[in-house]
Design a protein that fits this description.
Elements (H helix, E strand, L loop, with lengths): L2 H17 L10 H19 L1 E5 L2 E5 L4 H20 L11 H22 L2 H23 L6
Antiparallel strand pairs: 1-2
Amino acid sequence: MRMVPFLAAGAVLFVAACARQPAFKPVGSVKQLMVAAVAPSAEVLFDSVGTIVSVSGVEEIAPKNDEEWLNVWNHALILAESGNLFVIGDRAKDKGEWMKMSQALVSAGVVALKAAEAKDPAALLEAGGQLDGVCDQCHNKYWKEHPDN
């Protein structure tokens, strides 16, 4: 009977230790993440598929080999994970729209990941459209309010 309080206290301490979340230490600002990761990765996706019309004809652009598809996949992953980075620490501008838009960036990145895995140019083009919409929506709301972030 005397051990019950000790066991209960030990159980409480164990649960508390397991429930502790690691302390994240954001290093860069939202603007720095945009410049270093998001914008370059978005450009890779946007530039990876499309159609060029010139006097010599129409040319379809798409990754041509496994290495190019892997490059697109890598940048899609950066975009998806960037949505998660935008909600860590004091980067989140609010708990409503910012969180939804950050999750939308994750979702757009995942769509691009799947398109790259499938080596599907049409799906990648669609993913680029989704990404463009997510970026425009967020920039329209937050870029004007927080241009230095």
